[in-house]
Structure prediction request, 207 residues.
Amino acid sequence: MPVHLVTHPLVHDALAILRDEQTAPELFRRMAVRISLLLAAEATRDLPSTAVSVSTPIGPAPGLRVTGDVVVVPVLRAGLGMLDAVLELIPTARVGHIGLQRDEMTAVASRYYSKLPLTLGGSFVLMIDPMLATGGSAVAALDLLRDAGARDVRVICIVSAPEGIAYVEQHHPDVHIFTPAVDQGLNDHKFIVPGLGDFGDRLYGTQ
Ligand code: PRP
Ligand code: URA
Prediction:
């Protein structure tokens, strides 16, 4: 499974602020948007486009316009913090939602919501979830997307653990993962070390 390690310094600048325990929800949300914009740009490098000609005030100029159907799928709730950024880049994208919640004791993800666009087979699907820890949530979401007919799926996450990457690789070897950080591993509570804590809680101030 291809893992794309994003090394752009602006990505890592935002990531350092997200990791900082002193960062309050307002700044955390802004950094989540900033890093998501940059990661989404990286994950859409091979988005289909077509040659066009446009008229500038001076004359004709060759250009490229993005074509093809893009579907963005945030994994609730934390993935919502990345959605506006992706829609800023691709305003025509359709949006599916998958609601998953990890059990606090077992870290096993259970689904509480799913609403996906009807046709996914020919779409470029971007699944957004900031944290890839055990990989249980990602695999559950990818299973749903596959069952719904998705073929070309990329996952964007802000921090990942080797365990989660391996678990996704085992179940969905063809899925590309875009992440700036593969951390050391998981602690006893299945949190990423050093990670950044609970992304959803930090985003929404619920901790
Ligand atoms: C977090 C995160 C991922 C999941 C990652 O969500 O946003 O979806 O945990 O962990 P995993 O790889 O071990 O499955 P959480 O279940 O805490 O829900 P939330 O987004 O509502 O906070
Ligand atoms: N979910 C989070 O928000 N953080 C982790 O470290 C693991 C799962």
